[in-house]
């Protein structure tokens, strides 16, 4: 069997980078699981152990005491501490949002275009943990009493249809004080058609009484608390947690953190927004005039809770001292769609992983090439599997000039095979002399020995770009193609019923097609130039597909399908170019013509020859010394 040195080098570099990539990811996953286990143990250790002598306390009596306590704290709003919860819903083409009069806040958001694991619609912010609230002063005659708006029952929601097609839902809370200047609160939500963004406005009458002042006595402080629980939405909860992040814009600069690496952030500069990205779904709290400071903490519950992360944020929002005040916010609950978030122009789209951290270099490739081409193809192709196939053809078409040069370089190397074989016979085991004469032969024939590596190296940023893109594109979620029911997750038609190290409990069929086609490429490509004496170089092209079997098995089937199509295109191109486009007689004539031309050495070639000459002389001196 003959081997193409150029292709071997390309495979070695590609394999090394792939191995480094997946090794880094495995280390990240191990760190994530270790940190989660540590947090779980701390949480369990901090839980108070029940005292059997106290376990039989009358819960009814406790509830009564709490109600009396809440009533006292509510001061002038005592009448709002008890009531009946009433739900008000607003439906658009994108979602249905439900508001509760208890706390005058969103109760849940149901996305109309996305299904959950039970074939219902995805619901966000729907747990008992979720809350939007703030503290108000309720004391009379200088008494220091406070209440949380999340515990108070507002008047039932009033729904108003606006002329621009939007819907306003208002909740009012009035003090029991009969004076004209009695404080009151109104929460106003504006739901717009064809938008996931909801306006949230707080109107305070008697704001100077309801809110405390800052140290300068010139500003009123509103301490807004936003709690958000991200429920599991995907089948693989570990993979979903690894792709969940918290992000924010502080002092006009975007930053983010993966949930398993940190557990809190302190904000000392103005904050525009904070958000949670749950792979395919995002939730944001936005202040139109910025928060002045705040904190954000989060915990990662155990897998059995089916909760990805619980985030608790408290921010200070300042307003001028006045009897009437208005605080303006926005709430976003929707898909992690780059195009939608980009339209708001406040850097929310940066939370979408089109290339982050050490792979940030592929983000421009995704933004300016992959995403526009993807949207263009999707405009006339409905099936996402076919969209991926057409995208692959586009990518291969763009890099086809380099691919042709690579195959042309391989054909030249093949034409030089008899002469290289003669050099081997001449020098025998003297690799130093063989290398020098071989380089001289390449230079005389006008052959670039590294020409075959370029397409393989070019595939690396493309692969990393698509790895990020397919993990972040919400359209792939639930998209079926062939035997895969969800292109955003691995296909698992073969299940083992047990966990196999490095492979998992399933076998992806798209992974098999990617591995088989990679192996066929290795067999077809390694028949061009003389045998490799280095066993690593000789067998690496055949080992590389084996690596893929383990590395690709848990990746989204969109990525393994792309790799399969790309490999099939490579096989077809190799066969067509080598047999019908490249004229080997012309190549030999071109080589002979190049040999007749005067040659000029580059500085790099001169240095290499000088180094090789020095090494040769040192080797000769060592041999003489031994004699």
Give the topology.
Blueprint: H1 5-46, H2 59-74, E1 87-91, E2 95-100, E3 105-115, E4 121-124, E5 131-137, E6 146-148, E7 158-161, E8 167-174, E9 184-191, E10 197-205, H3 207-210, E11 212-213, E12 219-231, H4 237-242, E13 244-250, E14 253-258, E15 264-267, E16 271-278, E17 281-291, E18 293-299, E19 307-320, E20 324-335, H5 338-342, H6 363-378, H7 384-398, H8 400-415, H9 417-427, H10 431-445, H11 453-472, E21 494-500, E22 504-507, H12 509-525, H13 535-551, H14 557-581, H15 584-596, H16 603-626
Helix pairs in contact: 1-11, 1-13, 6-7, 6-11, 7-14, 9-10, 10-16, 12-13, 12-14
The quaternary structure here is single chain
Provide the residue-averaged pLDDT. 80
Radius of gyration (Å): 33 Å
- When the domains are counted, the total is 2
CATH class of the largest domain: Mainly Beta
The largest sheet, given as strand count, sense and whether it forms a barrel, is: 9 strands, antiparallel
Structure report:
The protein is of the alpha+beta class. It folds into 2 domains: 5-27 and 363-593, no CATH class; 81-352, Beta-galactosidase, Chain A, domain 5 (Distorted Sandwich). The protein has helices at residues 5-46, 59-74, 207-210, 237-242, 338-342, 363-378, 384-398, 400-415, 417-427, 431-445, 453-472, 509-525, 535-551, 557-581, 584-596, 603-626, and strands at residues 87-91, 95-100, 105-115, 121-124, 131-137, 146-148, 158-161, 167-174, 184-191, 197-205, 212-213, 219-231, 244-250, 253-258, 264-267, 271-278, 281-291, 293-299, 307-320, 324-335, 494-500, 504-507. The strands form 4 sheets. The chain has a 9-stranded antiparallel beta sheet. Strand 18 and strand 19 form a beta hairpin. Helix 10 packs antiparallel against helix 16 and helix 12 packs antiparallel against helix 13 (535-551). The radius of gyration is 33 Å and the shape is elongated. The chain starts with a helix and ends with a helix.
